[in-house]
Structure formats: structure tokens, C-alpha cells
């Protein structure tokens, strides 16, 4: 996938309506932090050392296409505009920290957008693998393949006692962070979400609203908080089990809503679908709330007029940065962006209308 196509595309193959438990779990991600032997962490490295890190990794990562059977786009951050970086952040392919101005930062992103390798962020390497639905094992397998490929060619900083050495002590050990994005309107509507948020720390996990997304979207990220003293398999299994429990709670909450307060919930679903279908102006904040209710209505079989895949594209293609980039105008006013968003949403809903 060419960089231009990557930026303009309104879909991410790892996010949305496919995969196990996809009515609740939108995607899974595994991230590995790695560093090269004998070189300081990026935060302590000088420009010459940062350039050396980049060159060493370039020599290896240039062969990713052959090794993994698909093209990888090489993106040099200081050659990207602020708007292009914003789009990549919205698509969760790079982090806000990575997008900050600093020389010798680059990313390798696979054509299917499921693998993203960041060079010279906090660590020399951040390997991200993203998969649809509840599929942590698959995400871990792919991240491990990339890790093994790199380790065949370069020496990575590892200590027999401390494990992989990382810029932050919280990542010591496996250097693994696993997370899952969940859509939890049922728990929010029944006011049980705080119970989940407050109990997960006892399991070494954290649940937080998805960063960069309005609270009305009802999207939450659950991730492991511990990386030292546990094996990768134990971390994945622990998170997988916890997510399974949350999925069960969410489904019970949705079922309860179909009996208690049904009319009010269905009215909110149809009002949201109606506004999305006909509005001429939508702010990003109200859009998130409306599209969450629409997705809930689709999952519960209330709305049958549009296919579930509409949500996957709308939630990507109607963000501020993506709309400005698509319009080739980063100076659009808030009102202009809201008008373009409404037009784009209507077009996507029409695209995914069911027959009959």
C-alpha cells in the first residue's frame, strides 16, 4: 500500500466487525519494546547515535517485504506534515509521542496495516501487531515473528535477571504490552462500567476510555500493567480471560436493556441513526455518541437497514484529521469540517445499505 493510499483509506483491516466476539471486541493489539545492545535509549542518544540506530534497523527492516510476503511502507517522520501525522495517530498506527518533532524517527507499516514498527520513540523499537476481534494469541504470534526476524540479525539488550531492557522500568521483563479495544454501551447505559474499571487493577490490568476518542463513543481499552515476573503466555492468558469476563458482563447488560427501558433505548438508537442519515452538520464529539448508539442498534438487531461494516469505516473516515486530509485542506474551519463529516457519514451509510 503506497503511503498516499494508507493515509486516504477509510478502513483498517484489524478494526471493526470481524473476528471472535466482534460484537463487543473491536480489536486486539500486542506491542513489544526492544533496544539494541551498546547504544543509549533514544531519550539519551545524540543525533549521531540516533542516526546509527536508524541505519542499523533500516538495513534489517528493508527485507520485511520478502520475509512477510507483503509490502511495508517506510515512513520518515520528519518528512511528514503535521496533518499526515495526525491521520496516522487517528488510525493508531503511530503514537502521539512518536509524532513529536525529532530527527531519525521512522515507521514501517505493513500493507494490511496490521503490523507497525516504530523506530526511535522511547525505545529503539516498538513492534505493534493488531488483529480484529478477540485475537490476542494471533497478534502475539505476528509480533513475535517480527521480533525473531530482527533478533536473527541484531543483538537486542537482554539481561538474564531483568529480561528485555527498556527505557521505562514498567516495561522491563517481557517488554510486552497487550491491549484490547471494547465497545461497552451496555455497561455504560446500566451504569456498571465503574465496577469494571475499579476491579481490574486487582488483576494487574487497566481499563480506560480509549484515548483520542470522545467518551460518548463508549470505547474502552483494557491492557496489562505488569511486564516483569510473568511469561508472555501468562500475560496473554490473563488478559484473554479478563476480556472474556467483561464481554459476558456487557452482553448481560445489553440483554437487560432489552427488557428494562427497552423503549427509551430503542428510541435513542433510531434517533441517532436518523441524525446520522440526514444531518448536514456533525461535530466530532456528537458524532462519536451517535455512531455508538447506531452500532449498538446494529448489534442488537434493532437496525437492519445497514450492514455492520459501516461502523468500521465511519469511525475511521469521519475523524477530523482524515477529513482535512481527504479535502486537501488543513485550514478548514470547525463548521466546514462538521459539514464535510455529515456528508461523508451519509455516503458511507448509503454504501452499506442492505438490500430489500
Structure description:
- With about 350 residues, the protein is of the alpha+beta class.
- Helices cover about 45% and strands about 15% of the residues.
- The protein contains 13 helices and 10 strands.
- It has helices spanning about 5-10, 45-60, 65-70, 80-90, 135-150, 185-190, 195-200, 230-255, 260-280, 285-300, 310-315, 320-325, 335-350, and strands spanning about 25-35, 70-75, 105-110, 115-120, 125-130, 160, 165, 175-185, 205-210, 220-225.
- The strands form 2 sheets. Strands 2-3-4-5-1-8-10-9 form an 8-stranded antiparallel β-sheet, covered by helices on one side. The chain has a two-stranded antiparallel sheet with strand order 6-7.
- A hairpin with a 5-residue loop joins strand 4 and strand 5 (about 125-130).
- Helix 4 (about 80-90) crosses helix 12 and helix 11 runs antiparallel to helix 13 (about 335-350).
- The longest helix is centred in the C-terminal third of the chain and has 26 residues, at about 230-255.
- The chain is globular, with a radius of gyration of 21 Å.
- The relative contact order is 0.14.
- The model has no long low-confidence stretch (mean pLDDT about 90).
